[in-house]
Amino acid sequence: MGSHPHDPPMPVPTTAAGREGLEALLRAPRGAVIALDFDGTLADIVPDPDQARAHPDAVAALAALAPKVAAVAVVTGRPAGVAVRHGGFAGVPGLEHLVVLGHYGAERWDAVSGIVHAPAEHPGVAAVRAELPGFLDTIGAWRGTWIEEKGRALAVHTRRAQDPEGAFAALREPLTELAARHGLMVEPGRAVLELRPPGMDKGVALTEFLQERGAEAVLYAGDDLGDLAAYSAVEKRRADGLPGLLVCSGSAEVPELASRADLVLSGPSEVVALLASLAAAL
Asked: Biggest alpha carbon distance in the chain?
């Protein structure tokens, strides 16, 4: 183990807690879990989520890092199978024990089996699926917005609207009311409002996974409001004396995340470079 003169430099966390988390990971990697969001963290944000793909160097960096740590988990709001496909994670040497926690942990894909485990669909999702197109027409906020089918959730995107922020603001309250009528909740994100079942979030998913693996340290990287719950989970662990490092991928759109991060990177390319640096240092 150890770095080589030509290895990429290791970025330095700006907080004492973050530096402690990084040191713990480097000191005892076999007890460390690396947990990462997908969109905006491992994959660049694109206008059409169906076209999102992991950064070209992401799989190689993960495959180099994964055998050296306790576990690598991708924690995403996407269906687990979609994240696996868009990430190119299946059948990769070195990623035999990668886990994808999809739909905020409601679904799970393990590379070792290649199987997705998932509960039955919440009935409210089917009801909202049927009602949502006409609902958007009725409130007159449909122009430039579009609906993404996520299987166990639905998302209304405003990024293509003439006024993305205005459309987002206009839709937030009525969509929250629609979701509540059907027992769902709204998860706001970067120019997107996701209607999904309550009870699972990235914090719950991450906490359960860390407990399952007996993690002694954790690195979590994310880019959006949905990652705040995972940040809170890591902060709670740190309050209990267990080290962790919080990484923010990009800061311009989600200052709430950047302000709580120990290390702010510009986006997926720098996240992947960090993973490669860690792999080289271990």
From this structure: 62
Catalytic residue among 7, 37, 57, 163: 37
Asked if pLDDT for residue 92 goes beyond 70, the answer is yes
* pLDDT tens figures, 204-219: 999 999 999 999 999 9
Structure tokens at 226: 């949905």
Beta bridge partners of 187: 194
Find out whether 87 and 55 touch, Cβ atoms under 8 Å.
Answer: no
- Which residue, 16, 72, 10, is CA-closest to 238? 16
| pLDDT tens by residue, 221-262 | 999 999 999 999 999 999 999 999 999 999 777 899 999 999
Catalytic residue list contains 37: yes
**How far is residue 69 CA from its own chain's centroid?**
19
Q: The tokens 């399952």 sit on which residue?
A: 212
Question: Within a 10 A sphere around the Cβ of 1, how many other Cβ atoms?
Answer: 8
Token representation of residue 116: 């997705």
Residue 114 in contact with residue 90, Cβ under 8 Å?
Answer: yes
